[in-house]
Structures are given as structure tokens and as C-alpha cells.
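User: quick one
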Amino acid sequence: MLRSRIIPCLLVKDKGLVKTVKFKEGKYVGDPINAVKIFNEKEVDELIVLDIDATIESREPDYQMIEKLALECRMPFCYGGGITTKEQARKIIGLGVEKIALSASIVSNPNLITEISNEIGSQSVVAVLDVKKKVFSSKYEVWSHNATKNTGKCPIEFAQILESLGVGEIVINSISNDGLMKGYDLDIIGKVRDKISVPMTVLGGAGSKDDIKSLINKFGIIGAAAGSLFVFKGVYKAVLINYLSKSDKSSIHNV
Amino acid sequence: MITIIDYGLGNVLAFANMYKRMNIDFTIATTADDLIGAKRLILPGVGSFDHAMQRLNNSGMRSVLDKLVLIDKVPVIGICVGMQILAKSSDEGQESGLGWINGVVKKFDVSKFSQKTHLPHMGWNDIYPVRKHGLLKGLESNALFYFLHSYYFKCEDKKDVLATAVYGDDFGCIVVAGNIYGVQCHPEKSHSNGAQLLKNFSDL
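Assistant: Done. Structure below.
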């Protein structure tokens, strides 16, 4: 039986790892390589690393860092941050990365999805949509540049466009729930899920294994990504890289 | 000594890293000369079927590879698209495959499945050995492996299926014909189970 993927998501800023709340106040949580080593030991399902400086600084991905991470990763590795061309995507795949994540660059140029899919295969092309509810409305919008730019796009419609362009996976990342550890935004997840047939992963808000369990119970096979849950421990949020135990995972997957 | 074939496609470094960690000797081949004397071959592959065949055919390694595998009977293992190109052809493209294992590559027909199924088949799934084999030594039945694909290998001869997985339907995820092996999942990214399988291949 295919299992839902439970995925730590790490954010890189100034070469260190940070964890944000609502995309702000990045708290330093350690060294990326060290975190990957721990996640290897824990046998995590997959790993997402997002460089949250690259787009803001309008610079290329940090290939040296990516190569070092890929060398260490014994699990499928998805990298995102600053990718704007198919050449960059191909280069990153060549460093030993399984998937590349696109976000800001596909807002202005959605056809980049097709270009990159033709180059590296659609199974390796991930779109990350940072979403937030409009004020006094039930509608959501896609934001970019670490939630500082409102693209005005509807995530449900945009996800469908991206699927038609050949994206292999869509990550829905909730800006409002980020770092709060009070559960996923099931509302927007359901709305997008209904309209797409490529694999979907959700991020933003997971605070306990029960949050992950209820997500999977509701939606079946889905990618459950989390940041805070896997880098903090306890009510005072002490930094401690951690993951679910084998028995926790079995109970989540009902096996 | 393991020879990893680098024809510009697939995660060559991931295999190299796995063997490095296990202290098993390996080399990376980018030319026909590099292949000479190879004892175990790994044929990786990521991306589309046609792209993989074109890269391999234009790599300058094809004829030496044919000789090593078909005449000298050197064990070879194709991984992911590297497995799919062992077939005669694929739904995904027009190019002829290597045709080393009697079979064709089909797209999952998700419309036929009773439960809602998404493509690609992405994530950790159980593999079920059909019979005992050195390649599967030390792996428990329903060992978990990482999968990422939308097409699957359909053997003409069911005897060639070594292990199956279930995604909507049963499909052969590990196949073998003589010295030629194909693995749809990614042992290079499947933690200890993957390491075990790659070690087993080196011990065959």
C-alpha cells in the first residue's frame, strides 16, 4: 500500500536553518548538514529544503550548498529557491537532487513548468504555492517573495493551470498557519485537492502527529510536510531535530 | 567493483554515495573505454524514455554495453527509467528500447482504478517478492521502497517478475532475465532497504 509521505521542510537563510512564524521572525535552528544527518538516521520519507533568501536577493541558487546537502541525503531530496531557468534546474538535478521546487518564477512565467518538465521530466518538477485568505473574504490568493508580494492569483485556478502545463506535484503552503503548530488549513487543501490529479503536498501549521493523522484520514494519500514539528520540542519550542517513530508512523498509516 | 553508467541522465552521484558509505568499490563510466572489464553495471535514469534512449545511443557506450551484457553476460541493473529502457518500447515515446527483457512499458490507466489514484505514483510503497532471489536477500516481505513514476514495466513472460507492488493494480516492480535486472523504485533513495538491495547486487 502506498503510504502518505511525511516530509520535514527546512528553510535556509544566511546559510543557516531558520523557522518562521507566518513567514516572519526566522528563528535560528541550526546547521543544514547536521539536520540532514539526523533525518538520515530517522529515515524520513523525503526532505524539502527551501532557500528563502535567493529570490529576495535576486540571486542564483547556492549550488555548493545544494551539492553538499544532496551528497548527504539518503532520502529523496527536493530543493527550492531562486530557480528561474531550465539550465539551473538541470544543473541542480545533476548535483543529485530528485526534485526542484518553483514558486516566484512561475507566477510571472508559468510556461517555465513546461520547459523544465521537458528537460528533467515532470515527476521532478514541484510548484510551491504560498497561500493566504483575503481579508473579509473566503477566497484565497497566492503570494510570493516570502509573502511580501500578492500575485492576486487564485490558488485553485493556478494549480489547475500548472497541472495542464505539466507540473509533477503541487505544494500548498499556508502563510497564516506557518509556525503556529495548530493544524493545517484543511479548507484550502480540500478546495485545491478536488481540482487536481497530480500528487499534492501540504505545508503550514502541523503541530502534532494528530494533525498529520487527521489530514491523511481526511484526504487519503497526500504529502504531509512540516517545519516546526520536526525542529522544535516541547511548549517552549526548544530546538531539537526530530521525526516520527516507526510506531507513530504505523498508527498514522493504519498499518 | 561496480560500474555506474553515466550517460548524462539519472542520479549517478546518489549511487556513488551509497556504495561509498558501504565501502564497496565503484567507478563511474562516461566512455566506452571506461566500461571495459566491468563486472557489475548500474544503468540509472530519470526523465523521459525517448530522452534516455537518445542519450544512451549517443553516449558512445552503446555497442560495448550490448557486448558486455548480451555476450559476456555481465550482470546489469536498470533503475527507474534505466529499467524501463530495458523493454522493447514504451507508451511514453517512439524510440526503440534496448529490448534486453521481453516486455513493454505502459502508462498506468488511473481511470480503471476503483480508488482515487494520482500520477505519478510517488512515495513509499511495499514490494512483494514473488520468489527467492539473491537480489532480495535480507529484505523482509513488504519492505518499503521509494517510487516516482507514471509508467510501469509489463513483462511478456510472468516468470521474469521478481517482485510486485500495488498501485491501483499489481505491477512488476523488480524484473529479471538472466543477468539483466530492472528495478522501478529507487534503491539509492530508499534508506536501509535500498542499501541492502544495492549491496545484494554487488554480491550476486
